[in-house]
Model the fold of this input.
Amino acid sequence: MSEQLVKAFVELDEGGVLKLVEQRIGAGEEPLVILEDCRQGMTEVGKLFEQGEYFISELIMAGEIFKQAMQFLLPKLAAGGPAARGRVVIGTVKGDIHDLGKNIVVTLLRAANYEVHDLGVDVPPERFVEVVKETDAKVLGMSGLLTISFDSMKRTVQALTEAGLRDKVKVMVGGGMTSADVCQYVGADAWGADAQAAVTLCNQWMEG
Amino acid sequence: MDKETLYQERLQRIEKAINLEPVDRIPIIYLGPAFSPRYMGMSLAQFCNDPEAAMNVTIAAMERLGDVDGLSSLVPVKFHIMLSSLWLSRVAVPGRDLPPDSLWQIREAEVMKVEDYDYIIEHGWQAFLGYYLPRIVDMAEFQEAMAWGMANVRRMVETFRQHGFVVVAGGATTIPFEYFSGGRSMERFFIDLYRIPDKVKAAMDVILPDLIQTGIMLSRGSGVPRVWVGGWRSASALVGRKIWDTFVFPYYLQMVNALAENDIISVLHFDQSWTRDLERFREFPAKKCILNPDGMTDVRKAKELLGDRMAIMGDVPASLFAAGTPDDIYNYVRDLVRDIGPTGLLLSSGCDIPVNAKPENVEAFVAAAHEYGVVH
Done:
């Protein structure tokens, strides 16, 4: 059954995934096990993306199927399921209202069992700092499509430094025109060329 | 040299580059709709709301930058109206929704609904626009802007000519994929491609002839035998192979072919990476399009695969203009000329020169293009 569910995920067979989840819940199977299989399916899709077999459209569809499966599973999970792998604060920076890339990252991180605090778009530096402090998050993700986002990212990193938080949180940036040069310019720890890179970076940092 | 002689010299240079013939100097093509007003001290609000002022400030910026050959594409209507039309989306406008000197931004949302595909299939594109546009634009402003554009576009092209500048693309169109991706929002649209592929395709097939006709009409209206054909969400990096082969490439092929049959060259303004599928571009008719990537497509691979078929225009990345140094720009242009030139290359920015480009970087681009682009 586990293999079948993972396979249906990889094939982006929405109907197949939902039917299997329903059947397994109906058969009295532990929801946590089913959830783990769904996560495994997402991991496999992520691997295919990294190998250049799958592209953003497949990530989006897999994320949508995961969300649908969660609607079945979440009410059945006692106390919301297993402990999260870690906390991530994320948002599109001040001056930029594009949330598409950021939303894909949020879906993928949640599917990978991260507790994600999504601050939305046009987020000022002080708001990022406030939530990083409140949540004690280990990772801050900043997104921006436009080149004007670079200076907002830089100001946010400066605000983290001024608040004495810079060495407590890893900073990743992504979206639009970000690059290694931009990463260096804004003072982030890493940048991601795509949404899946955010998951890979968080996994590395949590293991490290 | 008088302006008309200069214009003729530049036009010939550009046409030779497009035809993959030897040039005396690699043409330098400017595109900086948000940079021009910032560079010249005009608010972005005025740039958006006054197309006459937008034209004048673009010419002033080009003249200040020095000896550039042409403008990549002309927008003869209010800029935000053009954006709303191409994206089927609301746009946050400086001076109205945003502070006067902020950059305009697409407000991506699911404005177009799934049932709108049915409306398109049943009633066609023109009827759909009449029914849909009030959701994203003020119709009085839209109609006034379109009427002004139609009445003035030829004069605008002529004004550029009087200043010695060639307008490379005189109108804009794109494939159904891009319109739907904007109207539905990318995430919902990509899900549609998996959930209801037949319906989406049927709607695409209905509107493609209208979108081709738009390109032909805009070219005829402006008198410029080249049109901008955009691509951003339909890029290879964003969509799976099967989707690209079904919903993307066949539509570009039909559009480029139809435009070519009407003696119109397609300026393929392709953002994001198209590297995976570059080989397919060989199916486009030779010398009937220009590939204009944004720095994310492997431009060297493009030259290798397509160098005998189409010119390449680009591709200094927007991020380099904003965050790089004049030395970075110099090095980028030098390498571009060495690897892509001297024939079949037009030096330009990848996508637009951004609003926060450092002026010294844009000036360095023009200087570097002169230093490295002269063919001995």
Summary: The longest helix of chain B spans residues 197-222. Chain B touches chain A through 36 residues (CB under 8 Å).
